[in-house]
Amino acid sequence: MRIISGKFKGKKILQPNDNLTRPLKDLTKESIFNILSHSNKFDIRIKNSKVLDLFAGTGSFGLETLSREASFVTFVENYTNIINVLKKNILSCKVDDACEIIQKEINVEFNFERLMKYEIIFFDPPYKENNINLILDKLLDANILKKNGLIIMHRHKKTQDLIPKKLKILEEKSYGISKILFLSLS
Q: What domains can you pick out in the chain, each with its CATH number?
């Protein structure tokens, strides 16, 4: 895995040495960023944006946004082994002043209210996570997505999650066994 574009283009991203996480594949990540750059269904700018990377894993998505000049990324991850990899990836890119790591489990009890407002929220829960709609409801109730912001959700393509009525699907794409949903406030 690597950074695809921007000031860290080509930089390798360390991976965990276990199989308890599901890293975002380069092809899927590249497709997400192509859609962000070229879609006429939404107008989002990565440059100078604040990004929330939920279930951050190695930090691949958030680091890609920092490479493309996002102003700040909040990484939220709970798994200790992957936190160490995430920290090494952040230090390797020398962006520790442009991000924070919150080591907490993301569930219906997670306190989203303490977070800032974001233009982009990347939501990459484990495929087996069943409380997606409840977590999204809690996130929306905290009012941390800016008015014209975007939630990008990575799920298994066969998963049929209930999307809260406060959100609308702007675009949906499938890649291998994954699907990516681009969501905005209704």
A: 26-185 (3.40.50.150)
